[in-house]
Amino acid sequence: MRAMTYRGPYRVQVENKDVPAIEHPNDAIIRVTLAAICGSDLHLYHGMMPDTRVGTTFGHEFIGVVEQVGSSVQNLSPGDRVMVPFNVYCGSCYFCSRGLFSNCHNVNPNATAVGGIYGYSHTCGGYDGGQAEFVRVPFADVGPSVIPDWMGDEDALMCTDALATGYFGAQLGEIVEGDTVVVFGAGPVGLYAAKSAWFMGAGRVIVVDQLEYRLEKARSFAHAETVNFTEFDDVVVHLKRTTDGLGADVVIDAVGAEADGNFIQHVTATKLKLQGGSPVALNWAIDGVRKGGTVSVVGAYGPIFSAVKFGDALNKGLTLRMNQAPVKRQWPRLFEHIRNGHLTPSDIVTHRFPLEDVAEAYHVFSAKLDGCIKPVIVP
Q: Alcohol dehydrogenase-like C-terminal domain spans which residues (predicted)?
């Protein structure tokens, strides 16, 4: 089969690999029909994620058609059109039984630190991802779901991570009616978090980024106020001035490890790899939220430490909430919003590339070229 493979930082290509086989009676083999490149895939592409091995296939956002199932699989059949959450999880461990699918204890040798994720390095279990013609899906009765007939392919694809994660970010904020919510990052997750904040009763939503075309999308898609942080000496001071001097009630960090805005933080994290990520957006979140407010973190950070302003968080009495999204837990409510026309997830898809052009797709997305917000890969 043809599959995207990692060859080193900033180098990916399409190669021939063996079609994955059933390795366990609970496995399924999925013929991928659509995959996406996630902003967090860029952390791998940029060489920031430990134990990302040459030859690995990325891709934790994908949908497809069931090609083959193991002898124990009961809920899927060949020919089913399915969506697969990015979490690999068993469904039965201490954490899964509490709905914490992203913290599953049985799918990753590094499970004390992180759960299993498709195509996201051996730090996250070493599973090949879906930027390929076929992918093996373990615990096939647990993660994948048949896509409802009324749901379009690209809408379903967005539910496998970006939409579910954005929605989860707003959930973690524990937004109450009338709250002012600031979202750092106008990428796909930030756009979905801003949109979701309205569903949860926000009275005001402000999106912060530096790319004008993405801020325009935040205004048209999420109906948010926008702030370009490059226009202010101190974006935190500006946010305080626009929130009666108090700060926002809830701030969501939808940026994660590669935040711009502070040269030293950016270099020590993304160039020198001395931190698990550049915590510029997270530190702005801590400083920009009001005392007693809530900071929600769904932007991805690496497993080592980062220079976070924890003392400020302590002294302001903040609530810090974070996790990788337990994707499937979000689906019932998201399906309701999509079916009722409150949300069209595919509205943020800007580019579609054939699998053969995956190197170009990564370059365009990484360099923020051509107004790219969300690229989709078609095998």
A: 188-259
Q: Are residues 293 and 262 in the same domain?
A: yes
Our count of domains for the chain comes to 2
Extract the tokens encoding 92: 């039965």
E strands, 52-144, where? Answer: 61-69, 81-84, 87-88, 116-117, 134-137
For residue 271, give its domain range: 162-322
Q: Residue 265 sits in a domain of what CATH number?
A: 3.40.50.720
How many CB atoms within 10 Å of residue 74? 9
Rounded distance, CA 219 to CA 242, Å? 17
Backbone angles phi, psi at 196, to 5 degrees: -70, -30
DSSP characters over 162-210: HHHHHHHHHHHTT--TT-EEEEE--SHHHHHHHHHHHHTT-SEEEEEES
Burial class (CB in 10 A: 0-12, 13-18, 19+), 340: exposed
pTM: 0.96
CB atoms within 10 A of CB 213: 14
- Tokens matching residue 161: 């991570």
- What does pLDDT average to in each consecutive run of 10 residues of the chain (379 residues)? 98 98 98 97 93 97 98 98 98 97 96 94 97 98 98 98 98 98 98 98 98 98 98 97 97 88 77 79 96 96 84 97 97 98 97 98 97 98
For residue 59, give both structure tokens.
């891709």
* Claim to verify: residue 20 and residue 88 sit in the same structural domain: yes
